[in-house]
Amino acid sequence: MSTEVTVAAVAMNVAHDKEANLAKYFRFIDQAADQGARLIVFPEQSLQGYVYGVDHQFTDDEIAYHHRNAETIPGASTDRLVAKARERNIYIVFGLTEVRQTAFSPLLYNSAATVGPEGVLGVFAKVHLPGDERHIFRRGDSWPVVTTPLGRLGVLICYDQMFPESTRE
């Protein structure tokens, strides 16, 4: 049995339009699977779109957009991506605005979900939040690793890679 795994990394223009981004996801997943990829990785916040700018003043409209479009994991988009993973026998890592309901209010996280033919395998919430992200997202507090037939996968999001403890953990 071969220990080689083909991985696809996607750089895409992300819109503040979840359905348009999902349509792009599905095209990229099909293209990657057709070329033999078993793992495809999408950019940070690529499901709903990243914050409108860096080091800027948040508007009520922007905050409302992120709250309105945030999703639970599992949720509607992860369910659709799990179905696609089963169809194409591929593992998918994608960035999204995740919402977690608390007794007091919904909290938003800059997260990455890992899904495969088996379902949702893991969720990582970005720990190190730079600049304006701190005004809208809560920070994560763990470094989950998931086991797949491809091997063990750990996810870091953007600024997390700047800190050596992220990978040590």
Describe the structure.
This protein is an alpha/beta fold and 169 residues long. Helices cover 27% and strands 25% of the residues. It is built from four helices and seven strands. It has helices at residues 18-34, 60-69, 76-88, 164-168; strands spanning 7-9, 39-41, 91-101, 106-116, 119-125, 145-148, 151-154. The chain has a five-stranded mixed β-sheet. A hairpin with a 4-residue loop joins strand 3 and strand 4. Helix 1 runs parallel beside helix 3. The radius of gyration is 16 Å and the shape is globular.
Topology overview:
Elements: E1 7-9, H1 18-34, E2 39-41, H2 60-69, H3 76-88, E3 91-101, E4 106-116, E5 119-125, E6 145-148, E7 151-154, H4 164-168
Parallel strand pairs: 1-2, 2-3
Antiparallel strand pairs: 3-4, 4-5, 6-7
What's a concise summary of this model?
Helices cover 27% and strands 25% of the residues. It has 169 residues and is α/β, with parallel strands linked by helices.
